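Good day; I would like, with your permission, to put a structural problem before you. What I wish to show you is a protein chain and, alongside it, a tokenised description of its three-dimensional fold. I would ask you to consider whether the tokens describe a fold that such a sequence might reasonably adopt. You will find the record immediately after this paragraph:
***
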Amino acid sequence: MKVNIKRIDTDFLLEATNDTENTLLMDGTQNIGGHHLGFRPMQMLLAAVGGCSAIDVISILKKQKQDISSFEMEVEGDKQPIESYSVYKSIVLHFKIDGQVDPEKAYRAAKLSHDKYCSVSKALEHDSEITFKVSVNGVLVE
């Protein structure tokens, strides 16, 4: 796997391109001269863990013939400074699923992603406590 990153302005705006020519923009914060024209790299980590788990959960629920009419996620990270950099001390994934979906199946799908399948979570779990919660049709599954 390879990603190419190219600077596209005179400040910090960067474009990443993958091997199938998909692109995304990254930028620095305004306090270092960025312009808020793309994701900051630490935001991309949250998007990556959310996207990885979302693909897992949707795939599992589709295999179980669950009818998802809407799928959203909220991913929240709490950064902790360490020397000159920071890490996410904690990351909370909130799966928000609507449709004809069995809440227990949705919860088990999220747990499987968390415990077994999500490579991004596994890459981050050494420094970050990653937890999740699941809502189905607006009701938190417990």
Remarks:
- DSSP finds three helices and seven strands in the chain.
